[in-house]
Amino acid sequence: MRLPAVVLALLVITVTPAHAEPRVVGGVVVEDVDEAPWMVALTTSSGYQFCGGALVGPDLVATAAHCVYSRTPSSITVVGGRLDLRTDGGSSSVVTQYQIADGYSTPSRGKDIALLTLARPMPYRVLPVAATTGVYDARKVGVVYGWGRQEESNTDKSPLLHKASIPVMADEQCSAAYARYDAGAMFCAGYPEGGVDSCIDDSGGPFVVDGRLAGIVSWGIGCARPNTPGVYTRVTTYLS
């Protein structure tokens, strides 16, 4: 069900998560905070970054459901306006509550989207939500952002925000790669030869097409492997 005004068919919960492999490889460093002022990091109270997200309202963050599933809201800190997570610039706020799409269970079954409500608004430009399904046309190029690994096998992730440009794949290609692919709930993006992809700890980060939020980093097999594209939440199914 699609609801208006950046509202989900939602349920506030805090239960045990199902395990999922979160999924920037082949990207470049974002040099200017004004390029992505809406980009935020989800961290623990001690500052450990575990997911990304995007401001869709001054006090609302869109991210992946599996990023927050089972966490208490007050244990999540959202950091904005900070490209380098080693610094203390920008703004931060704890989460007062989160909402996930009704019926979510695991990323591979879809509905992998959540809205976080912040204790205090952030003073940054928000990212508008895509208004049409044309953003998912095959070969449409989107940009994914995150602080995750640059290689699947490299456990050291970068404290610097990275981005990568990746084309949307046709639904038939996605279905061939993943038996559980659901075109109503997700889409995939990548190159047949691999090499460029979102990766571990990029989960929840935005996939931006034509300056609008089209997807959320959700799941996949490994990072940047041939014929195994990254899978993203189809945001227009849940937000408008």
From TrEMBL:
<dbReference type="InterPro" id="IPR009003">
    <property type="entry name" value="Peptidase_S1_PA"/>
</dbReference>
<keyword id="KW-1015">Disulfide bond</keyword>
<dbReference type="GO" id="GO:0006508">
    <property type="term" value="P:proteolysis"/>
</dbReference>
<dbReference type="GO" id="GO:0004252">
    <property type="term" value="F:serine-type endopeptidase activity"/>
</dbReference>
<dbReference type="InterPro" id="IPR001314">
    <property type="entry name" value="Peptidase_S1A"/>
</dbReference>
<dbReference type="InterPro" id="IPR050430">
    <property type="entry name" value="Peptidase_S1"/>
</dbReference>
<dbReference type="InterPro" id="IPR043504">
    <property type="entry name" value="Peptidase_S1_PA_chymotrypsin"/>
</dbReference>
<feature type="domain" description="Peptidase S1">
    <location>
        <begin position="24"/>
        <end position="240"/>
    </location>
</feature>
<dbReference type="Pfam" id="PF00089">
    <property type="entry name" value="Trypsin"/>
</dbReference>
<protein>
    <recommendedName>
        <fullName>Peptidase S1 domain-containing protein</fullName>
    </recommendedName>
</protein>
<dbReference type="InterPro" id="IPR001254">
    <property type="entry name" value="Trypsin_dom"/>
</dbReference>
<feature type="signal peptide">
    <location>
        <begin position="1"/>
        <end position="20"/>
    </location>
</feature>
<keyword id="KW-0732">Signal</keyword>
<comment type="similarity">
    <text>Belongs to the peptidase S1 family.</text>
</comment>
